[in-house]
Amino acid sequence: MRELLTPVVVAPMAGGPSTPELVIAAGRAGALGFLAAGYKTPEAVEAELRSMSSPYGLNLFVPVPPLADPGAVERYREALLPEAERYEVDLPPVRLTDDDHFAAKVELAVTYRVPLVSFTFGVPSAEVVRALRAAGSAVLITVTSGDEARQALAAGPDGLIAQGGGAGGHSSTFTPAMYRGDRPALDVLAEVRAVTGVPVVAAGGDTPALLAAGAVAVQSGTAFLLADEAGTRPAQRAVMLSGAPRETVVTRAFTGQPARALRNRFVDTYSALAPVGYPAIHHLTAPIRAAAAARGDAEALNLWAGARHAAGRPGPVAAVIDALRA
Ligand SMILES: Cc1cc2nc3c(=O)[nH]c(=O)nc-3n(C[C@H](O)[C@H](O)[C@H](O)COP(=O)(O)O)c2cc1C
């Protein structure tokens, strides 16, 4: 696996930003890129796998256990009714489970012998890890603490991704009720390295500092959101280029899983009300987010971004990679 990893890794970014063009351009610029399988149909994932030639990775969402208290999601649905009115959409009935076609996506990874497969939101079974490794894939599991690292190691991965609290987008935390996103990436890396000798990729911090601290590679997402090849929504690009820097916060308001996002009206209104509840809350807010995107209204969009988002610059992915290496 070490021979596949490059010091800069382009993170998987589900929901649009990750495109095959981004991954291919990263490869040409000498960096490993990840396709993001999250939310996509298996057919869409397969089409992307077919377009790959140089080494690449594929990221999968591990299904989370069903909610203990669905009532909290019903109450949140009530709280969101004014938003439904505002954006002229109907909120769907609460949908508690969705495995994101996990088994079919694992099967595709096996069939296409994907060089690197990473997991987020939890630990895949040892059987899944064995099947991927038998097909020739190297397996990485994302963790946010030493304790999660121990749990992940039991599944037999080739390495771990240590995600720091400043990371943009969803946290991979296995305990979303407790997650605050306040642990620096260097601390998480040190804690994870203390429990294992397997290679550790870091995420959510400064690339040279994390490499110097022993990370085999650093996976960055936010820095690539403004790349020409990224599929970032125009409304998010506009906010990031507006010259009026916004704070980022960790919020469950959009999906029920803590995620770091740029503050906007939706974050400020609903963060205190949103319970833990991925994927139920993801489905609940989807029509609001879709309507806001169609209107070019960034105030009800999930503007995933990391704490260091202000350093982002538009341009080709190769230039972003060079800037991260420096
Ligand atoms: C827009 C966006 C989408 C993301 N989607 C995923 C994803 O689908 N799977 C995943 O494992 N990580 C995802 N992440 C988290 C990254 O893997 C990584 O932890 C994070 O980007 C690192 O912090 P940085 O954004 O400050 O570079 C996403 C991050 C962003 C910014």
UniProtKB/TrEMBL annotation:
It comes from the Bacteria. GO terms for biological process: response to toxic substance. InterPro entries: Aldolase_TIM, NMO. It holds the Pfam family NMO. GO terms for molecular function: nitronate monooxygenase activity. Keywords: Detoxification, Flavoprotein, FMN, Monooxygenase, Oxidoreductase. CDD domains: NPD_like. It catalyses: 3 propionate 3-nitronate + 3 O2 + H2O = 3 3-oxopropanoate + 2 nitrate + nitrite + H2O2 + 3 H(+). The keyword Oxidoreductase applies. Its cofactor is FMN. Belongs to the nitronate monooxygenase family. NMO class I subfamily. PANTHER family: NITRONATE MONOOXYGENASE-RELATED (PTHR42747). This is Propionate 3-nitronate monooxygenase. It comes from Actinoplanes cyaneus.
